[in-house]
Specification:
Blueprint lengths: L1 E3 L5 E3 L8 H9 L28 H7 L68 E7 L12 E6 L5 H9 L17 E6 L3 E5 L10 H17 L3 E9 L6 H12 L4 E6 L12 H13 L8 E3 L8 H19 L1
Parallel strand pairs: 4-6, 4-7, 7-8, 8-9
Antiparallel strand pairs: 1-2, 3-5, 5-6
């Protein structure tokens, strides 16, 4: 059963209907340029299946991946001014995300999993350093976005979740994306060119209560158009505030992305903060969020803990993005 929230995201109930695997595989083979990051679709509802987009599942990607071998162990992340300890490595018993090039039945050791995440590092992981970041421009509509073939990652989340802060932390430039104490400041699709080879895209935040209903629906319309028509989109970094309990609008957003076969990684922000009176420590809120996601997702989406203040998770997230991007480049050529 479908229910549309106030911000346009569809809240989708679990169903027993399953798409025929042969039909799905055939549809994917017809797509010449697959998205890299598996969209990890929620289980199908009784409504007819949506058209399959340019998305390759992690399982199919692993079967096609040419490179093999052990991945280098990821570096542990610690900000030079941080007193926050490095997050413990997630147990291999945790539901893991297997990237392209890693078989699902592969023997995975703790060292192959990024700290503070469920992400396995595979053979496509490479140089993840950001040496250069350039603001290219802003677009009011998806059709106005850059027309080149460079791959891109979109940063999405509720207003005031820390999107601009994360972009600044990833690029290590204090004002790459302007931050503001006023939620909802970003109103356009903003492209940042990284190392002259790929884009980081800052999208408007959703769920800002002070915005008019018309403005919220306009946002929903043009942002959804970006997701559904952007061939160069490798995946979405869906930011979730770990300092507060799970928010329905974030779950609705994840459902909509999954239903439309748009790959996503959950990036839990503010993992260094504990807000008084708002319930739960970040670890508890993340666990509760994951329990909610398991109700609608057949497989675990990738997730990672971050903090723009301490630098927690920065290097790990960039390494995760590198293996997705490198595989995308391999498939696109």
């Amino acid at each position: 059963m479908y229910r549309i929230s106030a911000f346009g995201w569809a809240s989708l109930a679990k169903s027993n209907s399953v798409e025929h695997p042969a039909r799905a595989a055939a549809a994917m083979l017809l797509r010449p340029r697959p998205f890299l990051l598996q969209a990890l679709k929620p289980l199908h509802s009784s409504r007819g299946p949506l058209a399959v987009r340019r998305t390759l599942s992690a399982h199919a990607a692993a079967a096609d991946a040419a490179p093999r071998g052990d991945a280098p162990p990821p570096a542990r992340t610690r900000h030079k001014n941080s007193r926050t300890p490095v997050p413990p490595r997630v147990s291999v018993n945790t539901a893991l995300f297997f990237p392209p090039g890693v078989e699902r039945d592969a023997a995975v050791t703790d060292e192959m999993v990024l700290p503070g995440s469920n992400i396995v590092v595979g053979p496509y992981a490479g140089d993840s350093r950001i040496k250069e970041a350039e603001f290219i421009g802003c677009s009011a509509h998806a059709r106005d976005c850059p027309k080149d073939d460079r791959p891109e990652f979109a940063v999405l989340g509720r207003s005031n979740v820390g999107k601009s802060s994360l972009i600044n932390a990833l690029t290590r430039r204090k004002e790459a994306a302007l931050t503001s104490k006023k939620p909802g400041k970003t109103q356009t699709i903003n492209h940042f060119l990284i190392n002259k080879s790929w884009y980081l895209v800052d999208l408007p935040g959703y769920g800002f209560a002070a915005a008019s209903k018309t403005a919220r629906m306009d946002w929903s319309s043009f942002t959804k158009g970006y997701f559904l028509n952007r061939d160069t989109l490798v995946g979405v970094l869906l930011l979730v505030d770990a300092s507060v309990p799970p928010q329905k609008i974030d779950l609705d957003c994840a459902n909509w992305l999954g239903r439309n076969n748009v790959g996503l990684t959950f990036v839990f922000t503010k993992c260094d903060k504990v807000k008084k009176g708002k319930g739960g420590r970040p670890e508890e809120n993340i666990k509760e969020f994951q329990e909610n996601i398991k109700l609608v997702y057949p497989e675990p989406p990738p997730w990672i803990m971050t903090s723009s203040t301490t630098g927690l998770g920065r290097d790990g997230l960039l390494l995760h993005m590198s293996q997705l991007r490198n595989y995308w480049d391999n498939e696109a050529t």
